[in-house]
Amino acid sequence: MNVEPQQYNVSFYVQGNYPRNQANLTTFTVSLRSNLTGEVFASSTIANVSVPFIDSVQLFTTLHPNRTAPNSNNTFVVSFDGEAIRGQTYYFSLFSLMPETFKGTPNGLRKDIAEAFYEMKPSFLRFPGGNNLEGFSPQTRWKWNETLGPLIDRPGRPGNWGYYTTQGLGLMEYLMWSEDMGVERVLAVYSGFSLDIWGVSGPSYPLDRMPEVLQEALDEIEFCMGNITSKWGSVRASLGHPEPFDIKFVEIGNEDWFSSTYPYRWKFMYEGLKAAYPNITYISTAYNEASASYGYNITIPPGVLWDTHHYEEPSFFVRGFDFYDNWQETTNQPGAQVFLGEFSALQIDTPSHVVNFSFPEEKHIFYPRLVSALAEGVYLLGLERNPNVCKLASYAPSLQDFNWYNWTPDMIGFDADPSHTVRSASYWQQWLFAHYCGTQSLPITNSEGDYNPLFWGATLDEGKNCVYLKIINILGDSVPLTVNIPQPYK
């Protein structure tokens, strides 16, 4: 772990195994020290603790290192005099060592990672993720009400990516994340479908049990948006946030093209949620992707977004530059709009143009490359020039722990040392598009040549009275061009 000159908030639980009337006082010492040299960078004592027998007690202190450790090979240590408690046993649980967090929010975000997100200038946060929402079964899915309150009371669950999740990042933490960054919220609610271990053909709730799925979603939205006199709004207030959180987007499920049951589940959830919260924009997670397997096409009501995911080769994104130019007409979905909820260049270009999700080393892109960022940028140019259709887009996945990961490529990489946090080529492509995002798409007339290898798009920032012209060259050779802007924009 990294050690820097800052305040670390420490807490842990301890319980003894002896009758209370035999308890004595114990002093605990907590410290941060080097695994290589034993040097202690900070230390604090919690003195004269009467360790209980029936229930555990939570202890608190702070640590204040006065210098930066030379490396991250360090340990958080809790020690006490074993001789003084001979014959007794102490049981410890939920050790927490929290450095300063983003915006100082309790149980908040690691500063360097959060700052990377914040400096990218995001406009929304989609949570609690995709597969994380569904789980491998209805029993192991993400249950929002089990992620609230003290960390010690959150049961946790088996995650979808090979590890157990503690639910330390729960619904309240997601809401505070969005508030701290000043972004809109895209709340995904469980829609009655879970993945099996391979990610397809999982179990679905039958129609006669969908009312309980709907009620769970209604309760979750009430927790977010309800006033303090409502049942779940009062719970939110008890957790320190009496002001409601505004929810403008609700996504019904995740990647439901894996399921044959989404038509009846979508209809039931959409109609029930729309009746209770008519001003929310709803997002469908399936449209016609499953038509070959299950024989259905879902009609997306006007004003509803369709969430589409693309993990592809770079050439797919280049070929898709004009995909959304006449999307509503060619799909016969007037009024429907698009949310590009997950996308990234996953493998190098191949003759078949078929992505191999077993990730063979000779094809897989393990870290975002320049070619990835260029191709993804071309695709986003296509979205920008169709703002009547394309409303939201988000790269995925966002984060990769270099010491343990399941999926690559990812936008931001990190380990225990903040100086090792890497903002990838795809991150900087996202940064450029977010920082130079206009309010109106502008037409461009080209007098010579056509798209490829150059791709371009322009937007007008009406507030700043300036034009943002984006030009992407997907090849290595220079291409001469002249740009004329006929009006007096910046």
Automatic annotation (TrEMBL):
Keywords: Glycoprotein, Hydrolase, Signal. It holds the Pfam family Alpha-L-AF_C. GO terms for biological process: arabinan catabolic process; L-arabinose metabolic process. Its EC number is 3.2.1.55. It is an enzyme of class 3 (hydrolase). Pathway: Glycan metabolism; L-arabinan degradation. Residues 356-490 form the Alpha-L-arabinofuranosidase C-terminal domain. Signal peptide: none annotated. It catalyses: Hydrolysis of terminal non-reducing alpha-L-arabinofuranoside residues in alpha-L-arabinosides. GO terms for molecular function: alpha-L-arabinofuranosidase activity. PANTHER family: ALPHA-L-ARABINOFURANOSIDASE 1 (PTHR31776:SF0). Belongs to the glycosyl hydrolase 51 family. This is non-reducing end alpha-L-arabinofuranosidase. It comes from Friedmanniomyces endolithicus.
